[in-house]
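Please fill in the sequence for the structure shown.

STRUCTURE ENCODING:
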């Protein structure tokens, strides 16, 4: 629908009188309510004002009814397609002529002295004013309207008792005024929260930015607008479902608010903890449960609109709708592994030499993005990714970052409209020294020329919301360059893009994906916060190497079906046949472990030849307390004739706890050689560095409950003291403490280890995961029964 602005023919204020207040009212499908709210404003006493009503896609004759009103003030009626309340309020504020913008909901009927009360607050130095919003006496009596009335009265009492100290949940837009210059300086409401007519989140987000920037917001109990509340029970449940989605968006935008928002909805209550939150993890079952719950409570609400028990059951179903909305939006942001997609050209390059697979046609791109969203993936911004990589924020479930290398012209012409329609944020990496040129690096090997975006094109990308990163200056392989050339390709590329009037790039993508330690140091020194490769894999939260983030290249042959979903789900790494066979072998009781350790006892086994895997000489064993890791490490140390390094000995020696620097130095010294067995439960950067140098890693991932039960049930103390001996009771206390420690360690390792071990496995480290005490004991027995290894008798640990 084309936006239309109309002014009624009724009386208006004299043109020479500039209104002090612009009252902005967004409305959708509530003709009679908004007409009554506008009519009541005729009784206002105080400063001059105008009214701007933004009709947000209504089809019930709202605009015609408003134009027919005869009111003694300037009334502007603006029509637009349904774009959400935030967009409607922003549009009204842009059209406002007053120095103060007062936002009212379309069901608010203002008291005659409303503007005068707001004016008194501004005279006292306020930048924004929140008023009192009691329920209108003529509101139909239901348990919903009664609950709202109780909330409004408790709110005004709480704010009066606290001296008017506002919290974020108090900053609602039902009645909110703000100085127009302040509103514009803050950028208005974030329209993403209510895009398409959704509900919730935009007011809290605006309030947070208002307070964070140091503006003074006050509560004025004398500023009263009566809310004529007629929201139906089905609409109320829909709003709470949408509120759950809005809260996830708010937490993703403001990670510091995650704990407050999450706890405000009582996740630990018995119903939420043991029923609703587990239920929403099963999408089909939660939909059926929600549908049944809605049908029951809506029937009860229609029959008993004021019933107390009905109210209690209704609000339980409301909580289910909220958690379904949270789940649908990706869940509460927590540390999660990330997948980064890498696209190149969006031109159909069928038949082109060399680069045919790197051209994904626009129609295929649109289908791919939709397929990924239907599969449960959630697209994230670069800000979220950087916070996750730096360990400062979480991500929604199955997060995806979309990137484009090279910045071809087709990205602006074909890609931006698709990204805008699908609401997908993206990062584009530009070759700083070839802006407006062609893909010379591909043409040199026989590829057809493709135009790169010029300066205006890159600026248009940035205006469209894409983040511009650096892709070198000339697209040369960086590992072959001298240090001065490297500086030009990294720091020089950032400077060149900044000189074009673009924001300074925060991230870098290695041309051809080639990098090494020296290249990464230059990228770091150039001021970039992260850098991307084209090595497939996941990006774990708190990634220690921010300058080697993995990406999955999306090619033409990947299509938009099962192949694409499989590739993205596996982070671009189809499991090799040999590891797959090893995993299948683990289904047999420790066959792979015993075979691996005893391999050195069979005749003819000698030093490894170039065609065979070399002997294992650096083994890391990791597991929680009481998993048998020390015994297993000792057995392997004897079998392989290797030094045994215990992390506990390095961390606590001589009755004193080593500092992090002392521990790191001691660990580096202990693992300096090429032969060792390292064991412990600690997970820290020095330990991860040692893991990366290991030939094999054995993870003792035992059942946490099984370990705890086995330890508490341990009766070995009875053989050392009688049942009434105090030493026995002390030993039981020791077992209980150790059980708790083992549980915490195992929980932490199970959360953080999988992505770390996946990355190490991709780098060639053998990884073994022993999931039971029985498997660990068989490993230990097999190692103990083998002869000591060495150059003449190597023992190979395989995964």
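FILLED IN BY: designer on duty
SEQUENCE:
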């Amino acid at each position: 629908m084309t936006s239309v602005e109309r002014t009624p023919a009724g009386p208006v204020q004299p043109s020479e009188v500039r209104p002090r207040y612009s009252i902005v009212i967004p409305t959708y499908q509530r003709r009679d309510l908004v007409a009554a709210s506008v009519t009541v404003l005729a009784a206002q006493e105080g400063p001059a004002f105008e009214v701007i009503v933004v009709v947000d896609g209504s089809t019930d004759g709202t605009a015609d009814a408003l134009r027919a009103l005869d009111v003694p003030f300037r009334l502007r009626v603006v029509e637009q397609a349904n774009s959400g309340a935030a967009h409607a309020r922003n549009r009204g504020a842009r059209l406002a002529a007053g120095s103060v913008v007062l936002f009212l909901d379309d069901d608010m009927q203002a008291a005659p002295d409303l503007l005068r009360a707001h004016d008194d607050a501004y005279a006292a130095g306020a930048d924004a004013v929140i008023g009192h919003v009691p329920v209108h006496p003529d509101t139909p009596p239901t348990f919903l309207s009664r609950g709202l009335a109780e909330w409004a009265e408790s709110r005004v009492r709480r704010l009066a008792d606290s001296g008017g100290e506002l919290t974020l949940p108090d900053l609602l837009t039902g009645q909110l005024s703000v100085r127009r210059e302040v509103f514009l300086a803050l950028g208005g409401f974030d329209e993403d929260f209510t895009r398409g007519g959704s509900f919730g989140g935009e007011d809290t987000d605006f309030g947070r930015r208002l307070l964070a920037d140091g503006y003074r917001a006050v509560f004025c109990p004398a500023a009263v607008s009566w809310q004529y509340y007629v929201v139906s029970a089905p609409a109320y449940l829909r709003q709470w479902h949408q509120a759950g989605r809005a809260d996830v968006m708010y937490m993703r935008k403001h990670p510091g608010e995650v704990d407050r928002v999450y706890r405000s909805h009582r996740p630990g209550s018995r119903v939420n903890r043991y029923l609703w939150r587990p239920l929403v993890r099963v999408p089909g079952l939660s939909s059926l449960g929600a549908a049944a719950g809605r049908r029951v409570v809506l029937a009860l609400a229609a029959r008993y609109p004021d019933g107390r028990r009905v109210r209690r059951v209704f609000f339980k179903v409301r909580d289910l709708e909220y958690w379904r909305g949270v789940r649908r939006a990706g869940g509460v942001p927590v540390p999660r592994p990330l997948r980064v997609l890498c696209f190149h050209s969006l031109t159909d390059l069928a038949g082109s030499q060399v680069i045919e697979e790197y051209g994904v046609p626009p129609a295929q791109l649109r289908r791919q993005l939709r397929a990924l969203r239907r599969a449960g993936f959630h697209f994230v911004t670069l800000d979220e990714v950087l916070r996750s990589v730096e360990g400062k924020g979480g991500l929604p479930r199955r997060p995806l970052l979309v990137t484009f290398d090279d910045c071809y012209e087709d990205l602006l012409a074909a890609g931006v409209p698709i990204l805008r329609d699908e609401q997908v944020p993206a990062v584009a990496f530009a070759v700083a020294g070839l802006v407006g040129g062609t893909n010379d690096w591909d043409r040199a090997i026989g590829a057809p020329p493709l135009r790169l975006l010029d300066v205006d094109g890159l600026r248009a990308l940035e205006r469209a919301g894409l983040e511009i990163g650096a892709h070198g200056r000339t697209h040369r392989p960086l590992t072959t360059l001298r240090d001065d050339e490297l500086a030009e390709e990294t720091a020089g590329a950032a400077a060149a893009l900044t000189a074009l009037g673009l924001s300074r790039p925060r991230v870098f993508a290695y041309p051809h994906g080639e990098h090494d330690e020296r290249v990464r140091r230059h990228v770091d020194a150039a001021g970039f916060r992260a850098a991307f490769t084209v090595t497939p894999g996941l990006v774990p939260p708190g990634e220690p190497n921010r300058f080697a983030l993995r990406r999955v290249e999306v090619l033409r042959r990947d299509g938009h079906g099962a192949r694409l979903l499989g590739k993205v789900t596996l982070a671009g790494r189809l499991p090799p046949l040999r590891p797959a066979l090893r995993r299948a072998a683990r289904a047999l009781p420790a066959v792979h472990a015993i075979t691996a350790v005893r391999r050195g006892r069979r005749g003819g086994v000698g030093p490894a030849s170039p065609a065979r895997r070399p002997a294992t000489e650096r083994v890391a064993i990791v597991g929680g307390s009481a998993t048998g890791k020390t015994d297993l490490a000792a057995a392997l140390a004897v079998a392989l004739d290797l030094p045994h390094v215990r992390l506990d000995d390095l961390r606590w020696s001589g009755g004193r706890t080593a500092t992090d620097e002392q521990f790191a130095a001691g660990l580096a010294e202990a693992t300096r050689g090429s032969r060792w067995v390292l064991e412990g439960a600690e997970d820290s950067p020095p330990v991860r560095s040692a893991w990366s140098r290991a030939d094999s890693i054995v993870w003792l991932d035992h059942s946490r409950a099984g370990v705890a039960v086995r330890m508490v049930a341990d009766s070995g103390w009875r053989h050392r003291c009688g049942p009434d001996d105090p030493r026995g009771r002390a030993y039981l206390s020791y077992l209980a403490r150790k059980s708790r420690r083992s549980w915490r360690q195992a929980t932490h390792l199970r959360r953080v280890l999988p992505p770390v071990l996946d990355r190490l496995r991709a780098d060639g480290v053998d990884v073994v995961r022993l999931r039971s005490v029985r498997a660990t004991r068989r490993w230990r027995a097999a190692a103990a029964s083998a002869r000591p290894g060495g150059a003449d008798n190597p023992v190979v640990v395989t995964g």
